[in-house]
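Review this:
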Amino acid sequence: MSLLPIRSLVIEEHPLKRIVATRAFQDLGCDDVISVTNSATAMEILKSKGRADVALCSLREKCMQSLAAIEELCASGLVNSMIICSNLSADLHSAIDRMLTMHKVQVLGYVDASVRPNTIMPLLEQFERSTELPRDKISQPTSIRSFNETDLKKAISANEFRAFFQPKFNLVTNAVDSLEVLVRWEHPLHGILYPSDFLPRLNSFDLMDDLLFALIEQGLSFLEKISHTEPLMRLAFNVQAEQLSNPELVTKITDLLHRYQLPAYRLIFEITESGLLESSPTVLKNLIQLRIMGSGLSIDDFGTGFSSLERLCRLPFTEIKLDASFIHDLDNSVNNRAVVINTLALGKSLNMSVVVEGVETESQRESLIKLGCIHAQGYLCARPMSGKQSLLWLDTNRVNLNSV
């Protein structure tokens, strides 16, 4: 097994269990393993050494302290993902998943008290699939705290914020008819930086519109390059609800489309469900105008917000993107299966396509197909790619394209 350089954390108060768990990570090639008896000690070590990629913790039945310790560790921002030793019920595991996801921590899975290499290997492989670059190329938190408004404006002007593309694909045929546009900062000193490193700063300096228009322009340039080979390919852009309150939004998008002589139907705009709670008349006007132009509108991360179904049904959307959290442990989670089935039914009744996010494995593909799902996005098809990589990928995979 060849793993990325993973920093592992084992928290176990029982000495023998701690040794066995630590050895399991080491046997799988994890050289950087931190082994401690409690979460408080773990946090002190991680504050000096940096975040752990994978933490193994025990959740004991009827022990509120162990749950509180896990929640505190996740809230600290010092771990990226977690494996939990637990024999609690599936519905409690699902609730725990949701709680830790709120702290931006991925729950890789649950194991019993006997931690062995063969039990954690598939979970570490899952972490590896969800990690795009080795540690030496991943941005560190300390590298971004000094970014100021001038830095960010210069980066936008210099085109350092680059459009990356990830396909939406047909689960049955692998056909691709659209690509989501994601953003990476190709920083001259720090290398590739990810959205969590810079989007909060861009937002605080009111620069999100500048970023959006820069990405749309890069995306339209990309569509222009593939116009002869992929004339129907569409691009999806992430838009915050706050940006939809900009009265000049549609005008600027229209101007860019005219510049590249491309029709509006080639664009899809994805808006998170939670951002739709306080829709203003301007937001609704912009949504309606985009639809009238022919652009697609997608409800992103569906199921994670708190909008009523009645409110969502009244908005002019064409697509639902079901959040990746609902396909975790799909074979065993009755709740997650119910969410997928009912979202598909909702999409069908409202004449909206449904795209399931975060599909990484063949097992997930098979389960989703059995439930009636057709469209998906995730590493099973392709990771986010630069423009150059996307051109090569499309050329290589053209035999499967445009046959949805």
Summary: The chain has two domains: 7-129, 147-400.
